[in-house]
Amino acid sequence: MKTLRKLRYILFLLKPYWKHAKAYMLLSIVQKGIFIPLSAAAAALLPKAAIDAVINDVGTARTLATIGAYAAVIVAADILSNGLSYITNSVMNTKVMLALRNDVYVKAIGTDFKYCDNPEFFSQFTYAQEQIASVSLNAYSSVFMLLIAVSSVAAMGAIIASMSPPLILLSLVFVVLQTVLELPVAKASVNITAELSDKSRFMSYVARCITQKENSAELRSSGAGEKMLRVFRASSDSIVRSNTRFYKRIMRFSIPQTGITSLQGIVILTYIVIFIIAGDASKIGLYASLTVAAASLTSYTSQIFSIIPGLFRQTLEGEKIAAFFEAESVIEPPDPNAVPAPGGVYSVELHDIAFGYENSAFGIKGFNLTVKPGQRVAIVGENGAGKSTLTKLLLRLYDVGGGKILINGRDIRDYDVHALRRHIGIAYQDVRILAMSLRDNLTVYNDATDEELLRVIDRLGLQSVLEKAGGNLDVQISREFTEDGVVLSGGEAQRVALARLFTGAFGLLLLDEPSSALDPLAEYNLMQVILDKSNTATTIMIAHRLSTVRNFDIIYHVENGEIIESGTHDELIAAQGKYYEMFTRQGENYNN
Question: In what order do the strands lie in the sheet with 376-380?
């Protein structure tokens, strides 16, 4: 019963076809549920009609007309069936496959950020992205093949029952025997599918690691590549062993099943021959049609049982894909009651906030911070102190576990989160440049004219990038898709990321180690741009290198999720506390 309940995942896999290609799906139902069985039924009835016409001596013209009528039905049904099949396969499948990929990406982007830290969810996402198109297509094909088989079995059964009721009972005996033998095979198929799915995760991980360009150097310069290959080979050997056990287990059922399928046709044919010998010669046409119908019944019945294991396998695959789509999110879904994001410069208040990651000892507790509109605030501390976590909370990638975060005096949870983020510019330390044009990379927040972009390029010292691009803003700054693309240095990439923040007005800027790839002089010049009076946005900068924050209005030193010192640079140096020690140590490193 549990397995049968899981068949609902087949419906889950079929929903995209109904959603994105309803008309084509209805055409498929007509093609496979009507025209194919109609052709099979006409082919089964044709021998009786033709032979009866000859025996009854209705004349050549009427005999040929009878044959022609049945032939016309068969040909018309086949032409319509193939025509509809061509339309649905060529148009519907392409449309649905692309729509499915889009659905996966929409779900991934619209899922709460916390899932990015969940290995199981990431595995589900990867699986859905790679397999949803093929799994949905397989489920669609299986269901409609089953529709063909079942409707054809019904048609053949009706023909046989109307001509010879005992023969339909004999056919049902073989159906029962096949069912008894098929159920253990189907169950074993479900089990092996689940087992191989888990083992294939390791192989998928290896494939992902080897195909990601950022891993290329490490795979070649260390033993990481060989370790990956060992994992792949071990997983391969395990899969081969599992398959061997599976086929040994099902052989005692599948071999007798094959014999029964062959025997079914022979027994039915023998039954018909006996009736021909003992019966009226005038019924030869009847027996001929029974022979065709019985053979078709046997064929379509076997087809039903060959489809069932695939349906169970697709059920398990559908369950895994559904788990990705069923992930519940609180932050990202649109909220019709949300307040529009405010304009202007933002004030920020963190009142007694608490936060902790799942399965981690790290936590923020009782954290308080107030940033006035237009103020430049720096948050410094050792790695792991909680600095970057604060930026994620201010972007509402996570919700606080306790306390409140206020923007312009209002709880951040009241605002339309997506609109709010468009008013908060963020530059990460780990820069991700899009494999797109320089223009596209600079305008991820706001569109801008060529003149505006050129001013931003000049302001951020990106002339070297523009020169590499031959002065063309539409040249790709990546060689992901073209050899003519421009390759950026680490410092240039960070400048591009920061330049995005100067294409429009923001209420709040969050800078997470934005100059880590720059040399000290370039870093100093960049800080002057950030602190320029023309930049009126409230600015919060996360920094590990303290030389970058000397001119900020106030500096908060964070340790273990708590503020341990605050003040201007001169005040903290004069206090000779932890900030002083950290600044002095870094200064010695620079001197050395």
Answer: 424-427, 508-512, 538-543, 376-380, 554-559, 562-567
